[in-house]
């Protein structure tokens, strides 16, 4: 049986994978500055659940923040990482 050498494997951090700084922060961003990243796999569907989410946002605002990263190719814009349904519902509201 072959044994492993003493080399360690470096795993990328979540921050490195998402392309965001290592510190958490939150701020308000205008909806018009946010877009999905290229070839995003999920599709947002306007169904009954979306109507419920839109009504909830009308009444309460967005309670769970979305996750964005600065777009390196388009200055002063952001790519949506998580929260596509909330963004769509906020736009409808």
List keywords for this structure.
3-stranded mixed sheet, about 90 residues, Conserved hypothetical protein from pyrococcus furiosus pfu- 392566-001, ParB domain, 3 helices, single chain
How would you characterize this protein structure?
The chain has 93 residues and is an alpha+beta fold. It has helices at residues 14-18, 48-60, 84-92; strands at residues 34-36, 67-70, 78-82. Strands 1-3-2 form a 3-stranded mixed beta sheet, with no helix packed on it. A hairpin with a 7-residue loop joins strand 2 and strand 3. Helix 2 crosses helix 3. The radius of gyration is 18 Å and the shape is elongated. The chain starts with 13 loop residues before the first helix and ends with a helix.
Write the layout of secondary structure elements.
Layout: H1 14-18, E1 34-36, H2 48-60, E2 67-70, E3 78-82, H3 84-92
Parallel strand pairs: 1-3
Antiparallel strand pairs: 2-3
Helix pairs in contact: 2-3
Number of DSSP strands?
3
By CATH reckoning, the class of one domain would read Alpha Beta
Order of helices and strands: HEHEEH
- Under the CATH scheme, the architecture of one domain is Alpha-Beta Complex
CATH topology of one domain: Conserved hypothetical protein from pyrococcus furiosus pfu- 392566-001, ParB domain
Helix content: 25-40%
Task: Please tell me what the overall shape is.
Answer: elongated
> How much beta, percentage-wise?
5-15%
State the strand order across the main sheet: 1-3-2
Oligomer: single chain
Low-confidence stretches: none
């Amino acid at each position: 049986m072959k044994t492993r050498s003493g080399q360690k494997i470096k795993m990328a951090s979540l921050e490195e994978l998402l392309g965001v700084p290592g510190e958490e922060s939150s701020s308000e961003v205008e909806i018009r500055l946010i877009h999905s990243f290229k070839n995003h796999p999920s599709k947002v569907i306007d169904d009954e659940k979306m109507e419920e989410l839109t009504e909830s946002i009308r009444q309460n605002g967005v309670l769970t923040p979305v996750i964005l990263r600065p777009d390196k190719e388009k200055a002063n814009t952001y790519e949506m990482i998580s929260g596509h349904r909330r963004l769509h519902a906020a736009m409808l509201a």
